[in-house]
Amino acid sequence: MRAPSTALVELLELLRRRLHMEAAWLGRLDGDLLVIQVISGRELPLGLVAGSTVRRDQSLFRHILAGDLPNLIPDTWSDPRTVSLAPVRELAVRAYAATPVLDADGRTYGLVGCLSRQPQPSLGDRELRLLNLLAGLLTGYVTDLHRMWESRSRIWRRIQAVMEEGAPHMHFQPIIDLRTGRTIAVEALSRFRTHAVPEEVFADAAQVGLGAELELTAVDRALAMLPQLPPDIRLAVNASPSVVTNQLADRFLRTGRPEQLILELTEREYIADDDDDLFAVVERLRSHGVRIALDDVGTGYAGLGVLLCLRPDIIKLDRSIVRDMAVSPAHAAVAAGMSRIADGLGSDVIAEGIEAPADLEAVIGASIGYGQGFLLGSPRADLTSLGRFPGISGTSGTSGRPLRPLTGARPR
């Protein structure tokens, strides 16, 4: 069964076309507000989008619900009942059709209607019957919509509360040079006082339209710690592709130390191999010394096409591959193959999720030069005690493969 919102858009589009209107919408009553939940239209008038709210005292809907206005007026400027109303004049509503929608218990759920900035003199009883028919059909959907709305409202309030308490709080996990045991970078990781799983919090935020705001907050808090880092240690900051193309470059450059930054492209979103906007921002950052990392390679959306187009400076091998390398020839082969691909691309590889000595031995045996995980260093709120991982000495296990310095500039 299709989601109610998909079917609703189709019904609203049918209504909009039959009434020759610019937008058709379903709104839910919430106290003195009408909250637009679903909307259809090529050119939406009055700035209406899903999630918009209309106040009772600034709208026509209170008059319609009270029975002071009819459910359809073809030309509001020619009708004495509406010509002097503020919403009509200030918002240039020239024609409307709207009627209440009831829930399964017979209570008023909200309104379904259409708006136009042009008069529609041909509208009459036939169109009003179609509108009333649609309102009756919607009764079967609004219970599900009400549940969806309440669920999204709870998520929205929870994310807002998380942000108001000062979250996300940044922790920093070291990235280790496996030849020497030296910390050469730290990754900024978001944490929440409620001990919620960070990935789930970001997914919930994206679901209610707060994803970019939460991500950019995390970016700003990570960048604020850059002055506390020694100049030979880089700071890796996570961002999804849509956030990268939205003011992130300016944030990186304003630090005055972009050459000390690593941008980790997360795979919360699909990365298209023809995303020119993303690639343009990446090249701008790269030209200022920022190194580009592709996160969670091996499990997410990134395919060979993205690797070839993006040519990341750093490929981060996902923990789900690393943790079984010691016991699974298939996982070891994938890691070794990724190492060879990275070598051909001129990229470095960081193995994530190294949690046991066997993991570390397998990673070094695959000629992977850099590692990250609880065995090498757990995330911490401060940036003190950055140094060497004592369990590594010399270059044993690297097969003599020369490694590009992660802290240096990479020739393109």
UniProtKB/TrEMBL annotation:
<dbReference type="Pfam" id="PF00563">
    <property type="entry name" value="EAL"/>
</dbReference>
<dbReference type="InterPro" id="IPR029016">
    <property type="entry name" value="GAF-like_dom_sf"/>
</dbReference>
<protein>
    <submittedName>
        <fullName>EAL domain-containing protein</fullName>
    </submittedName>
</protein>
<dbReference type="InterPro" id="IPR050706">
    <property type="entry name" value="Cyclic-di-GMP_PDE-like"/>
</dbReference>
<feature type="domain" description="EAL">
    <location>
        <begin position="152"/>
        <end position="393"/>
    </location>
</feature>
<feature type="region of interest" description="Disordered">
    <location>
        <begin position="392"/>
        <end position="412"/>
    </location>
</feature>
<dbReference type="InterPro" id="IPR035919">
    <property type="entry name" value="EAL_sf"/>
</dbReference>
<dbReference type="Pfam" id="PF01590">
    <property type="entry name" value="GAF"/>
</dbReference>
<dbReference type="InterPro" id="IPR001633">
    <property type="entry name" value="EAL_dom"/>
</dbReference>
<dbReference type="InterPro" id="IPR003018">
    <property type="entry name" value="GAF"/>
</dbReference>
